[in-house]
Amino acid sequence: MGRPLFYEILEKPATSCIIGICSVIWFYIQKKNIGYHHVGLSYETAVEGHHWRIITSAFSHISVIHLVFNMSALWSLGIVEQLGHLGLGVAYYLQYTLVLVVLSGLVVLGMYHFLIQRFKIEYFRRVTAVGYSCVVFGWMTILSVKQPSSKLDLFGFLSLPISFAPFESLIFTSIIVPQASFLGHLSGIIVGYAIAWGLIHGMTNYWAVSMLGWVAVVFVFSLKHSGAYDFNFLEIESVTDPSLPSLRFIGNGRTLQMSTIPVEGVEIV
Predict the structure, then answer these.
(1) Residue 63 sits in a domain of what CATH number?
(2) Is residue 237 in a domain?
(3) Which one of 68, 85, 108, 203 is least enclosed by Cβ atoms within 10 Å?
(4) Exposed e or buried b for every residue in 198-237, given b needs 16+ CB within 10 A?
(5) Overall domain count for the chain
(6) What gap in Å lies between CA 157 and CA 153, rounded to an integer?
(7) How far apart are CA 140 and CA 67, in angstroms?
(8) Is-contact 220 210, C-beta < 8 A?
(9) Ranges for the Peptidase S54 rhomboid domain (predicted)?
(10) C-alpha closest to that of 228 among 38, 59, 29, 36
(11) How far apart are CA 76 and CA 54, in angstroms?
(12) pTM of this prediction?
């Protein structure tokens, strides 16, 4: 007889929280009848400035089967939180989950851009991706390098050797679920190997919190800029010098003007 679920939740606190967040978001999407095109990530929407979709697409699931498959795999991969002796653990898990969410989204957009611009495949301009699969595939890859003796358990009865799980799952999902995002899953594998091989390293709590702060800023301002959500308390306007942006908080009449010091050889993008 297995251990009570309560104790496993205590041993995988970050994984349990992420599963809870994804489940609540799925319930909200179903209740509000929100479609994948409202929260998903595509090249076309990214070009239009909907950068917030990198985050919403990762945590959104439209199909309950999609949700169950991803969360089942994620629960098994939560063993990363218990491998502190290998340099992993809860902090490592949270830090690099953030990296996987952001970078896998950027990598898949880069792939779309290459296929559209180099090979003129316009199909990828409107392909919309949703789901936590990119992060799941990333952790599969990291664990296959860090702990190759582990196994990936799916649905409580299907067990795969973790050393082959990333590519086995990539092929399996592409065959069984034709609409699955091959490039989205592949982007997670690419970023996963970059982390596991030390190409992306040095994340600390300080850098993770800093990165999270910048992600939050970009998220809010891209929502505002794209018109997807109207933040009535926040308005960007020009004052004094039209070339300098200002930030105005409506209600108390305060206006903050930002200035820049020109630096030779540097462009602000």
Answers:
(1) 1.20.1540.10
(2) no
(3) 85
(4) eebeebeeeebeeeeeebeeebebbbbeeebeeeeeeeee
(5) 1
(6) 7
(7) 17
(8) no
(9) 49-200
(10) 38
(11) 24
(12) 0.83
Residue type, 115: L
Residue 264: what pLDDT?
A: 36
Dihedral sign computed on CA atoms, order 214, 17, 185, 122: negative
Residues 6+ away with beta carbon under 8 Å from 47: none
Distance CA 167, CA 189 (A): 9
Question: C-alpha distances in angstroms, 213 versus 60, 159, 207, 210, 243?
Answer: 21, 38, 10, 5, 26
Tokens of 114: 């290459």
Q: Is 159 left (phi over 0), alpha (psi -120 to 50) or beta?
A: beta
Whether 244 and 258 have beta carbons less than 8 Å apart is answered as yes
- Specify if 137 maps to a domain: yes
Q: In what order do the strands lie in the sheet with 234-238?
A: 234-238, 245-249, 254-257
Is residue 158 within a helix (H) or strand (E), and if so which, with residue range? Answer: strand 158-161
Are the C-beta atoms of 187 and 136 separated by less than 8 Å? no
Q: Take residue 69 and report the two structure tokens written for it.
A: 């498959």
Q: Hey, how many other C-beta atoms are within 10 angstroms of the C-beta on 66?
A: 19
Q: Which residues are catalytic?
A: 133, 185
Give the structural domain span for 144.
5-226
Residue 169 lies in a domain: yes
Of 234 and 128, more confident: 128
Q: Identify the three-state secondary structure at position 143.
A: helix
> φ and ψ at 265, to 5 degrees?
85, 5
The C-alpha atoms of residue 162 and residue 145 are separated, in whole angstroms, by: 9
**Better-predicted residue by pLDDT, 222 or 154:** 222
CB atoms within 10 A of CB 69: 23
